């Protein structure tokens, strides 16, 4: 009696770590997207007043102006949240490997992308004092987002097949049938004009 009563609790306990891994993965991806977007808003290059880029005076250059890939990376990472929730087990491993690879590339591009600025002179009266300087806030924030993306990818590769999937209870025939509510079945049979006690 005790063994039978404890079986459902054992199954629930076994599903708990898998659900926790999914929540951790989603949190990592959301934080990564937030870091990429935040980096796009931060200053990457401090420009002295009077310097020209492409024939026009510019203020300090933020990540979106200087790098260009940060906002698309934020959108890509948000799309990965939906994919991680909806894909079946082994496909999550493929997704995780792809995310880890993209994250590693973003780590490199955050600091070693070789971004150049084509300065085109200065405004009249510019005394020439001060040079454009790169900041560390923007690259470090992008680097953090890339690291979070790598970790999320690794978790998906390691634990993806075990994680619950959004909409799994509506999976195609042949999959595991969801647990049905007996009371709900009785009321449905009565509303359909069937005899719920007939066993059919």
Automatic annotation (TrEMBL):
Keyword Transmembrane helix attributed: yes
TM helices/strands, residue ranges: 21-39, 66-87, 94-115, 135-158
Basic and acidic residues composition bias: residue spans: 178-187
Keyword set, alphabetical order: Membrane, Transmembrane, Transmembrane helix
Name of the protein: Trp biosynthesis-associated membrane protein
Region Disordered, annotated ranges: 168-200
Name of one Pfam family that matches: Trp_oprn_chp
């Amino acid at each position: 009696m005790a063994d039978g009563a404890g079986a459902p609790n054992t199954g629930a306990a076994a599903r708990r770590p898998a659900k926790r891994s999914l929540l951790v993965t989603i949190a990592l991806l959301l934080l990564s997207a937030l870091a990429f977007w935040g980096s796009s808003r931060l200053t990457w290059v401090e420009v002295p007043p009077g310097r020209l880029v492409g024939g026009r005076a510019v203020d300090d250059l933020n990540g979106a102006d200087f790098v260009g890939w940060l906002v698309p990376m934020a959108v890509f990472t948000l799309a990965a949240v939906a994919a991680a929730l909806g894909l079946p087990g082994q496909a999550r491993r493929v997704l995780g490997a792809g995310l880890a690879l993209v994250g590693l590339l973003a780590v490199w591009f955050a600091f070693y992308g070789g971004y150049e600025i084509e300065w085109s002179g200065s405004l009249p009266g510019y005394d020439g004092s001060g040079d454009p300087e790169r900041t560390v806030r923007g690259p470090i924030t992008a680097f953090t987002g890339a690291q979070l993306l790598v970790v999320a990818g690794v978790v998906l590769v390691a634990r993806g097949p075990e994680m619950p999937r959004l909409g799994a209870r509506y999976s195609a025939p042949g999959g595991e049938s969801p647990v049905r509510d007996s009371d709900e079945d009785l009321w449905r049979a009565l509303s359909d004009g069937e005899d719920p006690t007939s066993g059919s």
